[in-house]
Design brief:
This protein is an alpha+beta fold. 15% of the residues lie in helices and 34% in strands. The protein contains three helices and twelve strands; from the N terminus they run ααββββββββββββα. Strands 1, 4, 5, 6, 7, 8, 9, 10, 11 and 12 form a ten-stranded antiparallel beta sheet that branches. Strands 2-3 form a two-stranded antiparallel sheet. The radius of gyration is 16 Å and the shape is globular. Residues 15-39 have low confidence and may be disordered.
């Protein structure tokens, strides 16, 4: 939840700125190959204030054009909580996840899924959190044990951002989320490339 608040704040603070069901865990290995290439903007596309510079427009368009092909933020791991509302197995309870939760070894390398700029790097509710802006899109990386980048730093797809930390039960986990400039949480699995 803390990263959702950080993402929403980031979107609000930058919007209007002129500057740049129960699911079974997947056991497939995640790919981490950088995605490159720029496509020309569509003529009928509506631009937001976050795309008022050529750089902001290019980052947004690259991010959109690579939907379903973005590299995973980690090279290994199992998605244990999917985006949205899921029932907790064996109970009548359900939980909402704004992104995805990936279980993996503690200290695993976390990488940027696309070119962007670090909007926030710091602590939220006792956890290390990063927010990277990609034009009008924002990626949140929560539950890090260490951070390798700083606020306002430019990053490329595949750049090392930090390392994973532990969850409250002592397991390694990364919470990864994507949000647009309207503060609408996106399903990261629709944006990331299919696992092999």
């Amino acid at each position: 939840k803390p990263v959702a608040a950080a993402l929403a704040d980031a979107a609000k603070n930058n919007n209007g700125a002129s500057k740049p069901a129960t699911s079974k865990p997947s056991t497939a290995t995640l790919s981490n190959e950088p995605v490159t290439g720029v496509a020309a903007p569509a003529r009928d596309r509506v631009y937001t204030p976050l795309e008022s510079t050529p750089e902001g427009r290019e980052m947004s368009i690259n991010f959109e054009n690579n939907k379903g092909r973005l590299p995973w933020p980690v090279s290994t791991g199992v998605v244990t909580a999917h985006h949205g509302i899921e029932r907790i197995a064996g109970t009548k309870l359900s939980r909402r996840t704004d992104g995805i939760e990936i279980s993996l070894p503690i200290g695993s390398v976390v990488r940027s899924v696309a070119d962007g700029k670090v909007l926030y790097a710091g602590e939220v509710d006792g956890q290390q959190v990063l927010v990277v802006q990609h034009g009008k899109y924002f990626c949140g990386y929560q539950n890090l044990s260490s951070v390798s980048v700083s606020k306002d730093q430019e990053v490329k797809a595949g750049s090392v951002l930090g390392r994973t930390g532990t969850s409250i039960d002592g397991e390694g986990v990364l919470l990864f989320s994507i949000m647009n400039d309207k503060s609408v949480q996106q399903d990261p699995e629709n944006w990331l490339k299919p696992r092999k």
